[in-house]
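Replying to the earlier thread about multi-chain prediction with a worked example.

Input:
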Amino acid sequence: EDKVVQSPLSLVVHEGDTVTLNCSYEVTNFRSLLWYKQEKKAPTFLFMLTSSGIEKKSGRLSSILDKKELSSILNITATQTGDSAIYLCAVGVGGYSTLTFGKGTMLLVSP
Amino acid sequence: EAGVAQSPRYKIIEKRQSVAFWCNPISGHATLYWYQQILGQGPKLLIQFQNNGVVDDSQLPKDRFSAERLKGVDSTLKIQPAKLEDSAVYLCASSLAGTSLETQYFGPGTRLLVL
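Result:
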């Protein structure tokens, strides 16, 4: 059975801190790893990492895929209160875009 | 570009009642997904459509859940009869062609509470 594990499950930091969120996976036929940010309800897409694109960066957010260690990290620098959300990691397997999600990391950034 | 639309946003029903959710994907997206997200968990795929055909429904509780996408565009998910454990957010997502190197875009979800 495909498995995606995120850590920590929750995290509280102060504004301005840097945080690192972790995602590890055990799946057959890995194709992609995606990070989503979930505020209130709908997950919004952040990054997709694949064998041909193992590092992505957008503003204060960056992510790296380690295919050897079967894991990924999501870094957020200079955190802001607006970064408070649940961050979901999902792994795409097989030819179709079946995603297996982790439980998420709940991040709270205090002012 | 309009996003994925879902309705209703909230629904409260009693156990053993039936309920239906509606989803309209992003225009031109061939693949549509229904996920169930229980509080404290990540989304779990219930069913995946490619146009109007089912690609994966292995985690759909078929004794009570059903879904259709008759014209290959919008879709409905039905629960009949509902159980307490069906209380969750039901998310609809769509992607362009359904390959594993595509992004899935999510709708705002429907929060279901079964009393």
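The longest strand of chain A covers residues 30-38.

Feel free to reuse this layout for your own posts.
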